[in-house]
Design brief:
Blueprint lengths: L12 H24 L6 E6 L5 E6 L5 H18 L15 H31 L11 H22 L2
Antiparallel strand pairs: 1-2
Length: 163
């Protein structure tokens, strides 16, 4: 098995902005439940059906499950960004195409990190909203599906164009 070349990628201002947005979104996944925890009833919505109606309730302590999971995912995506040579690509990585392939992969991972953290933050917001008589998030399911597949599709198409 051939080793992929290691390259030190430099982040531009857009990359730094996306990384900052990812961090801010990650912090929001923790801020929302912590900020509203004392104001919430003992039982909060824990699941919504496809039409955005609550179909299950649980302890308000369950609000900490998503931020904990988000922490794990944020960490994994951050590690993957730091080692693009360890990732799988739809094309053969060579010394000639490595820098472009890695740059695209790192940018898609950064974007995926923002999207994933925004989804977790939105879920947290949607969970606390009914306690304040606000029903947010009717488009959560379709936006979630679209936002996950869009960057992956972009990565595959972009990688193939940089063969």
């Amino acid at each position: 098995m051939e080793q992929c070349p290691k390259i030190d990628l430099k982040a531009n201002s857009r990359d730094k902005f996306v990384s900052a947005a990812g961090l801010a979104s990650f912090l929001a996944t923790w801020t929302i439940p912590i900020a509203f925890y004392s104001q919430l009833p003992d039982r909060v919505p824990t699941h919504f059906d496809a039409t955005n109606h609550v179909d299950n309730y649980g302890s308000k302590a369950t609000l900490l499950i998503h931020p904990t999971l988000a922490t794990f995912i944020f960490g994994l995506l951050t590690l993957a960004k730091k080692r693009p040579e360890a990732l799988n690509y739809p094309v053969q990585i060579t010394a000639e195409n490595a820098a472009r392939q890695y740059a695209v992969a790192v940018r898609v991972l950064a974007l995926l990190r923002v999207i994933t953290m925004l989804i977790f933050a939105t879920i947290e917001f949607q969970t606390v909203s009914p306690a304040f008589h606000n029903n947010a998030g009717a488009l959560l399911l379709p936006l979630t599906v679209a936002s996950i597949f869009a960057p992956v599709t972009f990565l595959i198409l972009k990688s193939r164009s940089y063969r």
